[in-house]
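Can't paste images in this forum, so I'm doing it all in text. The chain is below; anyone willing to post the predicted structure tokens underneath?
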Amino acid sequence: MADQEWSIQQIAKLAGTTSRTLRHYDDIGLLAPSSVGQNGYRYYDQGALVRLQRILLLRELGLGLPQIGEVLDREASEAPALESHLAWLRQEQDRLARQIASVESTISALRGGERLMAENMFDGFDHTQYKEEVEQRWGRKAYADSDRWWRSMSADEKAAWQERVSDLGRDWIAAAEAGIAPDGDEAQALAKRHVEWLTGIPGTPAATPGGDVKGYVLGLGEMYVADPRFGANYATSAGGTAGAEFVRDALRVYAEANL
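Text version of the structure:
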């Protein structure tokens, strides 16, 4: 087993990524193949698979590729590093379990004509979990403004906002699966809705007078593709990043023409 190797196509399929991405990781020194065949094909052994698993886990934490490389170089011992990842995954598992229970309870109450328990509806929807990341990206004021806005909303307003986000994500996925062109009227209407949604969130550059709305929208589009946490919101039935890429391309067209 220790001597087994997998082709780049096999690893791409197993990891839900692409051969192009794996080749890029090799080009930047992040993940080298364990061997290269005479035909130029890349092959990966068990050690490379463990490193790729760590790369993908760190991507889900929101780290960029340069930062991931630094972490991997600093934490050479694989088992302790993976134990830290596992602790985070278990926290996420608990949070998702609470979200599932919360939504199931809401569905049950709606179908049974029962009164909704507002204090239970948002268990697991912890908007503070990205506090540090938001402050690093856009500053403390950005987080403080958005946090104040969210806390000021009633349970009904929060539910309506989340429904709006859900509807937008669903419509993006439907458009991507329908094969609509990113610069087509339907995709551009979705992009307009998306930007209007972003400008309604206090604290973001899109909502700040004189802020770099265009740069913010373009940057988010790239983040949707690069960061699995965001890309998952636009994942199509085909899997991969195709849905997120469609959103990014449509937002880019809209931003270039209107922002």
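The two ends are 55 Å apart (CA to CA). Strands lie at 6-7, 35-36, 42-44.
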